[in-house]
Design a protein that fits this description.
By secondary structure, the chain is an alpha/beta fold. It is built from 9 helices and 5 strands, in the order αβααβαβααβαβαα. A 5-stranded parallel beta sheet has the order 2-1-3-4-5.
């Protein structure tokens, strides 16, 4: 686990440096994505986001394989980036091979949002639900869509009860039972990302 966290930490630094290498002459609002391999994207860390959100300066601090505990140290990169908008999706690895308890997961999410808001109260934060699993996912040996739905319900409750200016986005309902939206039952394919992007564009 320590080796995984160390690897994730150094990858996050590399991604942060790459993501912030932008044209300073063109002032755009900063849109930061953070999560695991689903948000990182199977075509590269900014393939989808830069392509479909061209009006924004895109920063992607997502780390494949990481869980919500990675938010503890990645928060420093987030604060340094000083984004205007954050899109967060994380949790499937916490239900899978990096198993933690639901309350621990929720505490990581709460601490992350609180830290962002403390340093930048004007930052708009959108918390995406954990995606359901398709039939081909190997994670079905570790968890179930019933448990994922339960975690999402608790996540939604946390967001709506503890934060008045943070938005919860339900993607579970858009993906549930739609295996055609997945590469492998876990990661979305192009059609899956299109649905996610369309949902995000509704909010910002």
């Amino acid at each position: 686990m320590k080796n995984l966290l160390s690897k994730c930490f150094f990858i996050s630094l590399i991604l942060f440096a790459s993501a912030c290498n932008c044209n300073n002459n063109e002032k755009k609002s900063k849109l930061l994505f953070i999560g695991d391999s689903i948000t990182y994207g199977h075509n590269g860390y900014d393939f989808y986001w830069s392509r479909f959100f061209q009006d924004y300066e895109i920063i992607n601090l997502s780390i494949p394989g990481c869980g919500a505990d990675s938010l503890r140290w990645n928060i420093y990169n987030v604060i340094e980036a000083n984004p205007d908008i954050i899109s967060l999706m994380i949790g499937i690895n916490d239900l899978g091979y990096n198993r933690i308890e639901k309350n621990e997961y929720l505490n990581y999410i709460k601490a992350f949002i609180s830290s962002v808001k403390y340093n930048n109260d004007n930052c708009k934060i959108y918390v995406n639900s954990i995606l359901p699993l398709g039939k081909e996912s190997t994670y079905l040996t570790k968890t179930s869509n019933l448990e994922i739905r339960d975690w999402n319900t608790s996540l939604k409750t946390l967001i709506e009860s503890d934060f008045t200016d943070v938005t919860f986005i339900d993607l579970y309902s858009d993906f549930y039972g739609r295996d055609e939206l997945y590469l492998d039952g876990l990661h979305p394919n192009d059609k899956g990302y299109e649905i996610w992007i369309k949902k995000l564009k509704f909010y910002f």
